[in-house]
Design a protein that fits this description.
The chain is of the alpha/beta class. The protein has four helices and five strands; from the N terminus they run βαβαβαββα. The protein has a five-stranded mixed beta sheet with strand order 1-3-2-4-5, covered by helices on one side. The longest helix is centred in the middle third of the chain and has 16 residues.
């Protein structure tokens, strides 16, 4: 299941293990294309990687903290620390392979 996180619960949600956060917005076409991919990955990688979405329009503090300037941007966190940032639409297989290589 895809988590929907906010400025308020962000730190608690990414504190342990691997968390892959999709920074997105309603008005972003590529973000809307990526949405179903993110949801499928959340189901397929359940128990291995937490998959989360953060709406940049509603959560400016975290968006600015991690320097998200264009979307979609995805950041992989390990135990609360950013590991790597990926920008732009990516096909499901590419993202799944990337995440599986980090597990």
């Amino acid at each position: 299941m895809t988590l929907h996180i906010t400025d308020q619960d962000f730190d608690a949600q990414i504190a342990e293990g691997l968390t892959f956060v999709d920074f997105w917005a309603e008005w972003c076409g590529p973000c809307r294309m990526l949405g179903p991919v993110i949801d499928e990955l959340a189901t397929e990688l359940d128990g291995k990687v937490k998959i989360a979405k953060l709406n940049i329009d509603e959560n400016r503090v975290i968006t600015e903290k991690f320097g998200v300037m264009s979307i979609p941007t995805m950041i992989l966190f390990k135990d609360g620390e950013p590991v790597e940032k990926i920008q732009g639409f990516q096909p499901k297989e590419a993202l799944k392979g990337y995440l599986e290589s980090k597990i």
